[in-house]
Design goal:
Helix content of chain B: over 70%
CATH topology of the largest domain in chain A: Fumarate Reductase Iron-sulfur Protein, Chain B, domain 2
Structural class of chain A: alpha+beta
Number of helices of chain A: 9
Number of strands of chain B: 0
CATH architecture of the largest domain in chain A: Orthogonal Bundle
Low-confidence stretches of chain A: 248-257, 283-289
Largest interface: A-B, 28 and 26 residues
Mean pLDDT of chain B: 88
CATH superfamily of the largest domain in chain A: Alpha-helical ferredoxin
Structural class of chain B: mainly alpha
Number of domains of chain B: 1
Number of strands of chain A: 18
Order of helices and strands of chain B: HHH
Order of helices and strands of chain A: EEHEEEEEHHHHHHHHEEEEEEEEEEE
Low-confidence stretches of chain B: none
Largest sheet of chain A: 5 strands, mixed
Strand order of the largest sheet of chain A: 2-1-5-3-4
Oligomer: heterodimer
Radius of gyration of chain A: 38 Å
Number of helices of chain B: 3
Shape of chain B: elongated
Mean pLDDT of chain A: 86
CATH class of the largest domain in chain A: Mainly Alpha
Radius of gyration of chain B: 14 Å
Chain lengths: ~400, ~80
């Protein structure tokens, strides 16, 4: 079957920061062809400058770790048949590692962190014979397959926390620390635990490392075990000092997140829900607090004194979602002949209640001396504008004002 | 993206405090957040084996949805 393959290319000193080259290959038996075979054929048949790293070809050495269709894997283990027919094959170097050339990355940062947790075995006692540890012993069962790690770097590449946290040793190193911490023969328990605890709380339990590990190891399980060791050790020893975790900086999302497509799916659904909510709120469904103006009866027209200002208390309710606000406010109605003006009694300065002073024919605010003339215009004091007016209507001999 | 979404939701909540849709989304977000926190606690203390971490997510999301509905109906 013919397959389209895109491979990340980068050459130091080149004109760009990397790009993808497209290749096409006829693969007669996809079930018997690995991605490593594909790369070797491309190198042999189409582009001899293609750089990648490999050694054992049998999932033992961890040299050929790379990101294949968005997921970390060993090129010698990943089969072409695992990628759906017709789908393009994309190959790029591991995330979070400096790229040396094409698919070859610099593993130095990985092994520096690996060394930081004292990855070597230091025996408590000198042994002349190999120590016997029963396969049924709890420590062996706890360690499980964690010793099978081949340090391929896939877990670190998949980890969203490893790159942006200098102090975080990463899943592979902590998995190694775990295998030694659980080993009863280990003489560096306290020192190792001290170092492991300083970084293992940066794990966010995302299980990315567990998902991609080509050896089926769960570094997350190892990290959780180390965290629990802190509790048991703290009870029995006073030697353990838990160093503060370094501050977490903003993490960068990896380019390809196919593996966590369910997360993106969830977020997409949530985004759609939020946008939908905005749409509903803005167009279709009214908000709980309607904000729509409505008409409130004030008084019978006959009750308004001619040539004077009548202050009438008005009460109404405002529904805000499940809550009801009881509003009581005075409405000041000026009536001169047929001309009626309804003033809001709230001072535009700071909201104190304004009252009508008939002796001076002024509206006055007792709080800060704001004074308004009969038309509501500012005469004196700090108010920034004149009195607000209500819209009103007269219906069946009654005066109604509009409130929000 | 998740953080941006959360900030957008909180901003919407502040702008449209009594909008029932926004309130429901906020409650849903809190329930989901709590479910994930519960997940970490259960895994941290080995109450649930890491073998079941995928199933745990779905179980807790279902629990969060159920709690959301119960809380919502008890309020409104």
């Amino acid at each position: 079957m013919r397959r389209n393959i895109k491979i990340f290319r980068y050459a130091p000193g080149g004109s760009d920061d990397g790009h993808f080259d497209a290749f096409t290959l006829d693969i007669p038996d996809e079930r018997a062809t690995t991605i490593l075979d594909v790369l070797l054929r491309i190198q042999e048949e189409q582009d001899p400058t293609l750089a990648f790293r490999f050694a054992c070809r049998v999932n033992m050495c961890g040299s050929c770790g790379m990101v294949i269709n968005g997921e970390e894997a060993l090129a010698c283990k990943k089969n072409v048949a695992e990628i759906p027919a017709g789908r393009e094959i994309t190959v790029r170097p591991l995330n979070h590692f400096p790229v040396i050339k094409d698919l070859v990355v610099d593993m130095t940062p990985f092994f520096e962190k690996y060394e930081s947790i004292l990855p070597f075995f230091e025996p408590k006692d000198a042994y002349s014979e190999p120590a016997l540890i029963s396969p049924e012993s709890q420590e062996r069962l706890d360690i499980g397959s964690a010793t099978e790690c081949i340090a391929c770097g896939c877990c670190v590449s998949s980890c969203t926390m490893a790159h942006d946290n200098e102090g975080y040793a990463g899943p592979a190193a902590l998995n190694r620390a775990f295998t030694l911490l659980v080993d009863s023969r280990d003489a560096l328990y306290v020192e190792r635990l001290d170092r492991a605890l300083a970084s293992c709380y940066n794990c966010r339990t995302e299980f990315n490392c567990t998902e991609v590990c080509p050896k089926g190891i769960s570094p997350t399980k190892a990290i959780k075990h180390i965290q629990r060791l802190a509790l048991t050790t703290a009870r029995s020893q006073e030697l353990v000092s838990i160093a503060p975790a370094p501050p977490v900086s903003t993490q960068s999302w990896r380019e390809a997140i196919d593996r966590r497509s369910w997360i993106t799916g969830s977020l997409g659904a949530a985004a759609a829900a939020v946008l939908g909510a905005i749409g509903i709120g803005a167009f279709a469904g009214p908000a709980s607090s309607t904000g729509k103006p409505r008409w409130i009866p004030v008084a019978a027209l006959a009750a308004l004194r001619e040539g004077d200002v009548t202050t009438i208390p008005v009460r109404y309710d405002v529904q805000s979602g499940p809550y009801v606000e009881h509003v009581a406010t005075p409405v000041m109605v000026s009536r001169v002949g047929d001309e009626i003006v309804c003033f809001n009694a709230s001072c535009p300065h700071l909201g104190c209640t304004v009252s009508w002073d008939a002796s001076s024919s002024r509206f006055r605010c007792a709080c800060h001396g704001g004074t308004f003339d009969r038309d509501g215009a500012v005469v004196a004091g700090p108010p920034p504008r004149g009195l607000d007016r209500y819209r009103f209507q007269i219906d069946s001999g009654r005066l109604w004002v509009e409130v929000a | 993206m998740g953080v941006d979404l959360l900030i957008a939701l909180v901003a919407l909540h502040l702008a449209l405090t009594y909008n029932l849709v926004i309130q429901f989304l906020l409650l849903l977000t809190i329930a989901f957040h709590a479910a994930l926190g519960l997940r970490v606690i259960l895994l941290d203390f080995n109450i649930v084996s890491v073998k079941y971490h995928r199933a745990l997510i779905w179980a807790l999301v279902a629990l969060a949805l159920a709690v959301t509905v119960i809380v919502w109906l008890s309020i409104y």
